[in-house]
């Protein structure tokens, strides 16, 4: 699939489902190659994004295995792919233990879920049309073996470098980067900290940060300035673009921008970032 070098990441909680078509058009018109929908959506929820754009690749980031039957996911993919051939990417993940009471043995359960997709009576989701959210080495290895690669979230440049080394040269590494286009440093950090509050309380993310460039002191009290500035770059479009290029230099194939502190559909932010990256 051709994702392009850069894409948009958002959720319906942020933009409103009623704005899906407008958001997809805005991302495509800005020159972004892919649109990633977060918030553990159902796959069918991609339809208005696909309808609202001409060629944009649209993916989930992610469908949650604890909330899905693999046969249902395969069936929904087949229906969408029939209507929008070659434009749907199924991002799959296990979420995090703090949010899912059924969370147990994530590796073996994800493996079983992928087996279920491959055995579905409807056409299985091909390996090259699915991608896995992975942070640790075993999950990253599975992502390279059983999908296009990985879509890590809330991570560092060091993690992108580690992910590339772990999945090898052929699998994709597609990190999400939350960012704030605001040149007032203190205001931008406040916006970033408000967003980061949830993730700094989730062990999957904090463990990855601790293993790749940060210490416990960086995690505490809303996150150190060093962590906030690195994980959630802010400033001008050029400064955020430089942070994205750091991920590319570390091995990312594509970077997905989540614009914080912006209107429901951050069209101006997407245009500014795309222009800065040309």
Strand content of the residues, in percent?
5-15%
SS-derived structural category: alpha/beta
Task: Name the shape in a single word.
Answer: globular
Q: State the distance separating the first and last CA atoms.
A: 21 Å
Rg, alpha carbons = 18 Å
What's the total count of β strands?
Answer: 11
What's the overall average pLDDT, rounded?
A: 96
Give the low-pLDDT segments. Answer: none
Number of helices: 13
H/E order of the elements? EHHEHEEHEHEHEHEEHHHHEHEH
Largest sheet: 9 strands, parallel
Helix fraction? 40-55%
Mind explaining what this structure looks like?
With 278 residues, the protein is α/β, with parallel strands linked by helices. Helix content is 45%, strand content 15%. It has helices spanning 12-15, 20-30, 47-51, 70-83, 106-118, 137-146, 157-167, 185-199, 203-211, 216-219, 225-231, 237-249, 267-276, and strands at residues 6-10, 34-37, 57-60, 63-64, 88-93, 130-132, 149-150, 172-173, 176-181, 234-235, 255-259. Strands 1, 2, 3, 4, 5, 6, 9, 10 and 11 form a nine-stranded parallel sheet that branches. The protein has a two-stranded parallel ribbon with strand order 7-8. Strand 7, helix 7 and strand 8 form a beta-alpha-beta unit. Helix 4 (70-83) crosses helix 5 and helix 12 (237-249) crosses helix 13 (267-276).
Quick structural gist:
This protein is of the alpha/beta class and 278 residues long. It is built from 13 helices and 11 strands. Strands 1, 2, 3, 4, 5, 6, 9, 10 and 11 form a 9-stranded parallel sheet that branches.
């Amino acid at each position: 699939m051709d994702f392009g070098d850069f894409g948009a990441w958002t959720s319906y909680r942020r933009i409103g489902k009623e704005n899906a078509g407008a958001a997809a058009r805005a991302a495509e018109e800005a020159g972004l190659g892919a649109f990633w929908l977060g918030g553990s959506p159902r796959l069918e929820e991609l339809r208005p994004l696909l309808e609202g754009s001409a060629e944009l690749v649209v993916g989930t980031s992610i469908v949650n295995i604890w909330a899905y039957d693999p046969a249902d996911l395969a069936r929904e993919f087949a229906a969408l792919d029939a209507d929008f051939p070659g434009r749907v990417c199924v991002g799959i993940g296990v979420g995090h233990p703090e949010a899912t009471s059924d969370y147990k043995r994530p590796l073996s359960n994800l493996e079983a879920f992928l087996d279920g997709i491959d055995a579905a009576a409807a056409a299985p989701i091909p390996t090259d049309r699915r991608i896995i959210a992975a942070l640790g080495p075993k999950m990253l290895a599975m992502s390279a073996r059983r999908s296009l690669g990985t879509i890590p979230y809330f991570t560092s440049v060091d993690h992108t470098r580690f992910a590339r080394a772990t999945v090898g040269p052929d699998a994709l590494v597609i990190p999400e980067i939350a960012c704030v286009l605001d040149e007032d440093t203190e205001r931008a950090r406040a916006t970033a900290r408000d967003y980061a509050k949830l993730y700094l309380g989730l062990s999957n993310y904090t463990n990855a940060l601790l293993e790749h460039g940060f210490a416990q002191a960086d995690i505490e009290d809303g996150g150190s300035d060093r962590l906030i500035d690195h994980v959630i770059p802010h400033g001008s479009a050029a400064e955020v673009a430089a942070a994205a290029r750091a991920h590319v230099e570390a091995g990312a194939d594509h970077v997905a921008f989540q614009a914080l502190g912006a209107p429901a559909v951050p069209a101006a932010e997407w245009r500014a970032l795309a222009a800065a990256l040309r």
